[in-house]
Design brief:
The strands form two sheets. The chain has a six-stranded antiparallel β-sheet. It folds into two domains: 33-244, Chemotaxis protein chec, CATH 3.40.1550; 251-312, SpoA-like (Surface presentation of antigens (SPOA), Roll), CATH 2.30.330. It is an alpha+beta fold. It has helices at 7-15, 40-65, 81-86, 112-122, 139-160, 211-216, 218-244, 262-266; strands spanning 69-80, 93-100, 105-110, 167-174, 188-198, 201-210, 251-254, 284-288, 291-301, 304-312. Helices cover 35% and strands 27% of the residues.
């Protein structure tokens, strides 16, 4: 039912003279533990950043381990550090990562199944899943994992370059989630879960970054949204070029001549001369994966057949 307010009631509202509101507290409860929460718009930017990180890291680890590695960003959410620790296995493999030059520490956890598969591949194995490997990672295995962690953190630093020039570096390693208290249990963190598949093994990489640290970089994320497309495109090109530099290619040199009858080919004997109808002035063509790429000359060097590049195939 609709009712119009009288002039006295309207005046009482603006003057604070409403008797029904007097005596009630004007303060509302405030949760100080949520001061470090970041807005959803910034969460989306962090999600995009780590999607690119997962994609680039999969390519880097594939080249480093000489095996196909696939990675998928499973989840990214804000939770308390205590909740993050509760979701980790025990024992496990934890790296405490410094956020240089900033004053902060992130936590990275790799599931034991993944660590043991990586160690086996670093030692020349095939990375087959081990049976009932419920034990701590040994000191020798930790040393082997240091090199792989450098690859992971290098790609993580590259992913964050669009936001700020920051270097992730390992401060210490641990076996138990409750081993070292680098963050307060009530402190909010951005928990990032990445599924990794290598060979027949699958596992998780879990990363926790303090929310208060990301919140302080809010203005830098605003810049990232404006320039991200152009910068990431250039970065992807350079990254792809580095990966392709070590790819094997098939190369062959052909002397294209005239055709020959099958009857004449079958009648060839030792000492016969086959006229190719290929003038000496004509350059031979070198083909890369079946496509003509260079022109040059065929020669013999110390009993070995060689090819001297004279020009590109499309230069003339």
């Amino acid at each position: 039912m609709r009712r119009e307010l009288s002039q006295q009631e309207i005046d009482a509202v603006f003057q604070g003279g409403d008797s029904s509101a007097q005596g009630k507290p004007s303060a509302v409860p405030f949760d100080f533990s949520r001061l470090d929460r970041i807005p959803k718009s910034q969460i989306r930017a962090v999600h995009l950043l780590h999607e690119n990180f997962s994609r680039n890291l999969a390519a880097s680890l594939s080249a480093y381990l000489r095996a196909y590695v696939s990675m998928n960003l499973v989840s990214l959410e804000q939770i308390s550090y205590a909740e993050f620790l509760e979701g980790l296995a025990s024992p496990t493999f934890i790296a405490y990562v410094g956020l240089r030059p900033y004053d902060g520490t992130a936590v990275m956890e790799l599931s034991p199944a993944l660590v043991f598969a990586f160690v086996e591949m670093l030692l020349g194995g095939g990375g087959k899943p081990a049976v009932s490997m419920q034990r701590k990672v040994t000191d020798i295995e930790k040393q082997l994992m240091q090199s792989l962690l450098r690859v992971i953190l290098q790609d993580l630093s590259e992913a964050w370059k669009g936001v700020t020039d920051m270097r992730f570096a390992v401060q210490s390693l641990a076996d138990e989630p409750q081993g070292v208290h680098v963050l307060s249990p009530a402190e909010a963190v951005v928990a990032i879960a990445i599924e990794v598949r290598v060979g027949h093994t699958s596992g998780m990489i879990n990363l926790a970054i303090p929310s208060i640290f990301i919140k302080r970089l809010r203005h830098m994320f605003d810049r990232l949204r404006r320039v991200h497309r152009a910068e990431s495109k250039r970065h992807d090109q350079l990254h792809m070029a580095q990966l392709l530099a070590g790819v094997d290619l098939d190369m062959e040199v052909r002397l294209d001549g005239s055709t020959i009858l099958t009857r004449d080919l079958l009648e060839l004997r030792a000492g016969d001369v086959l006229m190719l109808n290929h003038p000496l002035s004509r350059k031979a063509v070198a083909r890369v994966n079946g496509s003509p790429k260079f022109r040059g000359d065929v020669s013999m060097v110390d009993g070995t057949c060689g090819f001297t590049v004279a020009s590109g195939f499309d230069d003339d």
